[in-house]
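[09:14] KT: can someone run the structure on this one? pasting the chain below
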Amino acid sequence: GFKMLINEPLFSPMGFAVAFGSTEVVDCLLNAGYPVSKGHATNEMVMWALMPGKIDNCTAVVAQRPGAVDFSDPGGPWGSILSMGTFLTETANQKDVYEWLARQGAVEKLKDKRSMLGVTALGYVGINLDATVETLTELVKLDPEFFKKDMHVPAKLPRTMGAMMSVWSALSGVSSSCAGMVKVFHFCGTGGTVLHDACWWGNLELIQALVVNLGVSPTTPCPDTLRGHIAAGLTPYEIVLLRWRGTAIQELAKALFEA
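[09:31] RB: done, C-alpha cells below
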C-alpha cells in the first residue's frame, strides 16, 4: 500500500502535505529524501495545493526538486495548471497564485493552451461561478496584449474533441450516453467568448468588467462551437434573456449593456 501511495503523488503523504499541510512538514519530507518525480501527477499535486493558496508549499517542492513540476505541461482534459488557477483556485488567493505562476514561466507557456472544453485560462474565468472582477483583471495584467485579444476569441474544441462532439450530437437522439455527454458540455458553457459565458452564468461583475471597462463587443453572436447549443447565434444580451428573463440579473445586465 505504501508503495502504491509513493507512486501516486496526488494521494501520497507528500501530496496531502503539499495540498493541506504546513511548509514545515513538506520541508521535512523533502529533506528526508521523499521522491518527487516529474510527471502529470506531480503537476496535479501542485494544482490542488494552489487552490487553497498553499504557495509556500509549492515553492518548497520547486526549490528542492528542480524540474519535477513541468510548467509547460498543457495538462489533462480539463486543462493546465494555469487554467485551474483561473477556474478552481479560491478567489481570495488568485492574485498571489497568478503572480507565482508567472514567476515560474507558466503564464507565458500556457496562456494559449486549451482544455477539452475548448477554452483557454482566460476562457475558464467565464465559467468560474465564483469569479470576480479581480479574477479577470489580475490575469489580464500579466500579459495585457494577449489577454485583451483572447477576450474576443471563442472556444475552439481540439480536433479530436470536435469530432467526438459531432458524433455525440448525431447520435444523441438514439443514445442516452451520447445525449448525456452533449448535455455535460452544454451545461458548462456556451462555446463562445468569456462574455458569452459570463452572460450564461449571470455574472454581472464580469459582464461589467468586460463590456464597460474593457470594451468587449456586446453584439457578437455566439458561434456553434458545441454543436447545437441553445445559445448558438445569440448575442450576449440575448443569452441573458434566454437564461435570466424576468429576474434582477436581466434588469441589471440590460443597464450594463446600455451604459
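[09:33] KT: thanks! Residues 79 and 231 are 23 Å apart (CA to CA).
[09:34] RB: yep, looked fine to me
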